[in-house]
Specification:
It is built from 14 helices and no strands. It is mainly α. It is globular and about 60 Å long.
Length: 333
């Protein structure tokens, strides 16, 4: 394989390195309130574009089928809202005897209680080629479910989810009905479009991370927290993979991809307002926020780096399953 062909194949990984490097050099460009206005261009325009893109690319029957996949939805929501926070709480009982700052540990506990984000889990699932419709449902439903039962203003959450997820998705489905033949004939690069939007999200996320004064820890504590967060993410991704690929799980490889990302990703958009309300008046709020501020870019970075590996597994697994289901040709004597 030539160098140019290799670079073309790995353009997304190279893009991740490039946008992080650019964000590190001049983070002020992509922070909230900066020239790019990510609070508008990313929060509303980019996220809406993601779900409009999903509405265009997904067949209506795929969306309907995903809504009826109750077992998958139960798995994701129970893992996200029950298993994840419980496992983190037990883990923190061990960490409490270490010299790690107690407020950082409280921040880790709150990370465990967060719902999945609306955008990153969907984009990564689409980039791999997994069950995108299931990812859309679980990401939106998880945020809606936890947001409606918390102190965060319900109307604000519902209206933002409706305008950035539901409306663009429906518009995409309507447009698809009129240009369906053209889409099937031309096959636009929907995956590449979503990956490009993800690079924008990674860029602005790391701009916020590098410019954030709250992440002002001694090097030891920062390294320990980053190590714990990456370890938690890798461990839980591996657990969801094991649980969803058991022989009696009935999940397809595409379902497993959606499960991995939706069950382990956590929402910064909903998480920060919740922290500010729950811990209002706490002088250590900045320390409590640090784990979530690190978890968010870490999950996007780790998920993006694992896209080629997970995609390779999914494709090979689908081929293997297809071969096992083919009727055997009787041997002629």
């Amino acid at each position: 394989m030539g160098l140019l062909e290799r670079l073309r194949k790995e353009w997304f990984i190279l893009g991740i390195v490039l946008v992080i490097a650019v964000a590190r050099l001049e983070p002020a460009v992509g922070v909230k309130g900066g020239p790019l206005k990510p609070e508008i261009t990313i929060t509303y325009i980019a996220v809406s574009a993601i779900f409009f893109n999903s509405g265009l690319s997904l067949k209506t029957e795929e969306l309907t089928s995903a809504l009826m996949h109750v077992k998958l939805h139960l798995f994701v929501q129970i893992f996200t809202l029950v298993f994840f926070p419980t496992a983190i709480w037990l883990f923190l009982q061990l960490l409490s005897i270490t010299p790690i700052n107690e407020w950082l540990l409280k921040g880790l506990q709150t990370v465990g209680c967060m719902p999945p984000p609306v955008s990153s889990a969907v984009i990564l699932t689409k980039a791999v080629g997994g069950n995108e419709a299931a990812a859309i449902f679980n990401s939106a439903f998880g945020s809606f479910l936890l947001g409606s039962s918390s102190s965060v203003p319900f109307t604000s959450i519902f209206s933002q989810l409706f305008m950035t997820v539901v409306v663009p998705l429906i518009i995409g489905q309507i447009v698809r009905r009129y240009i369906k033949d053209w889409l099937e004939r031309k096959k636009p690069p929907f995956g590449a479009i979503s990956s490009s939007v993800l690079l924008m999200i990674i860029y602005t996320t790391f701009c916020d991370t590098f410019a954030n004064p709250n992440i002002d820890l001694d090097k030891f504590s920062l390294i320990i927290i980053v190590f714990i967060i990456f370890s938690v993410q890798m461990s839980f991704m591996f657990l969801t993979f094991l649980f969803s690929t058991r022989n009696n799980s009935s999940f397809t490889p595409a379902d497993t991809v959606a499960i991995i990302f939706c069950s382990t990703h956590k929402s910064l958009t909903l998480g920060i307002p919740m922290l500010k309300i729950v811990f209002a008046g706490y002088e250590h709020l900045s320390l409590i926020s640090v784990p979530l501020l690190i978890y968010h870019p870490a999950q996007i970075l780790l998920g993006s780096l694992l896209v080629p590996t997970i995609k390779s597994w999914m494709v090979s697994r689908q081929k293997a399953l297809k071969l096992t289901r083919q009727p055997k040709t009787p041997v002629k004597v």
